[in-house]
Design a protein that fits this description.
The chain is an all-alpha fold and about 300 residues long. The protein is built from twelve helices and no strands. α1 packs parallel to α12. It starts with 8 loop residues before the first helix and ends in an 8-residue tail after the last helix.
């Protein structure tokens, strides 16, 4: 329960896209580098999940009458807070050791990416002013599970990235942030009571729903310039998911209870993975088969 395995799609999806971008650039795939990128992303997501569990309980947020969302292991007393803190510390040390090994292999940019990612994972629900208590949660997710994860993965594989990579990273970051927006809309009353100034609390429900729609639909708008940059219409494959995206948007409007939001949140995780899979296939096929879009 504390690990929240269904959320790990958020870590896998951008690495898959980064690996496809790397293959498109070089025509080969460094399996060890790809595995390293995936392990790093999974570690960051797991640390974030555990830190979120323990931070939520330590601040007493679970005691508010409006408490919603999935049950938390520390709040239920299944895992002691101090034991969860040891787990977070142990995983942070493991990530640091792994990162230092990658620094020796790939150079100082790994140190910058790894340090920033670990600090963000720990700070999301830790420290005197957690990110989760500010309006910057969605932005943080967009940066680290979009730009850093996708571009970092491609850089590990190839030593570089380009404009196409940036657009792909924005797609993945936007979808990950859209999932967080669903989570924050579900918890808006609870968060306002316990002092969490999330984007949904600051903007209000109506405007927060518009932000969610932008984050969910925005990646589809980026597919055409991506196809132009890639020189292949294969990058448009994720458009097949547009009907599903509309279902998610309608589903958000129909949510009436916390369980409805939680089900939509899990569906959003799956949707991001589906989008990533189609985009990855399109990137690989596009490098093999020239489509109707002229090469940039």
């Amino acid at each position: 329960m504390a690990l929240r395995p269904r959320s790990l799609w958020v870590a896998l999806a951008p690495v898959l896209v980064g690996a496809a971008l790397g293959w498109r650039r070089t025509g080969t795939l460094d399996a060890w580098a790809a595995a390293a990128a995936l392990l790093a992303a999974l570690l960051m997501q797991i640390i974030t999940n555990l830190q979120n569990d323990v931070g939520y309980t330590r601040r007493g947020a679970h005691q508010a009458p409006e408490a919603t969302g999935l049950p938390r292991a520390t709040a239920l007393g299944w895992i002691e807070v101090r034991h969860m803190q040891w787990a977070v510390a142990g995983l942070a040390l493991l990530a640091t050791a792994f990162g230092l090994w990658l620094v020796l292999l790939k150079g100082w940019p790994v140190l910058a990416m790894g340090t920033a990612s670990l600090l963000a994972a720990l700070a999301y629900m830790g420290g005197p002013r957690p990110i989760a208590y500010t309006p910057f949660g969605e932005l943080t997710v967009l940066v680290f599970f979009g730009l850093v994860a996708v571009l970092g993965s491609e850089w590990l594989l190839t030593g570089g990235f380009d404009a196409l990579s940036v657009l792909a990273a924005l797609c993945m970051g936007g979808l990950a942030a859209a999932a967080l927006a669903v989570n924050n809309l579900r918890d808006v009353a609870h968060d306002a009571r316990v002092g969490r100034r999330t984007l949904a609390v600051c903007l209000g429900v109506a405007h927060a729903r518009r932000v969610h729609a932008l984050l969910l639909a925005g990646p589809f708008a980026l597919l055409l310039p991506m196809a132009w940059l890639a020189g292949s219409s294969m990058c448009l494959l994720p458009l097949l998911l547009w009907p599903r995206a509309r279902e998610l948007l309608r589903g958000l409007r129909r949510c009436a209870q916390a369980d409805d939001y939680s089900a939509l949140l899990v569906a959003s995780f799956r949707f991001e993975m589906q989008f990533a899979a189609l985009l990855a296939v399109g990137l690989v096929l596009g490098s093999l088969v020239r489509g109707w879009v002229p090469q940039a």
